Amino acid sequence: MGKVGQTIAFFRLSRLAGASLTYFRDTLKTVNGSVHKNVTLSLPEALLRRFRVYAATRNQSMTSLMAQAIREIMDRDADSVKAKRRFLDRIERAPDRGTGGVIRWSREELHER
Questions:
Q1: At residue 50, what are phi and psi to the nearest 5 degrees?
Q2: Using CA atoms, how far apart are residues 55 and 4, in angstroms rounded to an integer?
């Protein structure tokens, strides 16, 4: 049984025995050669419970799942910034369509019926 499974089993046994819950955890200094910092999150109890079960069923730590989700959010944001920059660059480098960059018509002319 993995660490997450042990924690869930301990939680269940403690609750069944009517004991107060004591939660033990290790502070990670380095993981795969990279330095990790601890952060504190405040989550609704129901969400935290579901997240623990989610992580346990996938045999992953909550830390790795959170890191993965944060990376995906940031990558998506970076991708949209890059796409916007490419779009604006294309507009700036758009070929001349014979207007010489001057608009010779009015809005009313375009919308005349």
A1: -65, -40
A2: 8
Three-class SS of residue 106? coil
What letter does residue 35 receive in the DSSP assignment?
E
| 33 DSSP assignment | T
Q: What's the average pLDDT block by block, 10 residues per block, for the chain (113 residues)?
A: 48 48 51 74 91 95 92 90 90 81 84 81
Model pTM score: 0.48
Q: Quickly count: other Cβ atoms within 10 Å of residue 25's Cβ.
A: 9
Answer whether 14's CB lies under 8 Å from 20's CB.
yes
CA distance to 8, 45, 58, per residue, from 79 (Å): 38, 33, 28
**Spatial CA neighbour of 63 closest among 23, 27, 9, 33:** 27
Distance CA 109, CA 113 (A): 9
Query: Taking a C-beta distance cutoff of 8 angstroms, is the pair 45, 53 a contact?
Result: no
Name residue 19's beta-bridge partners: none
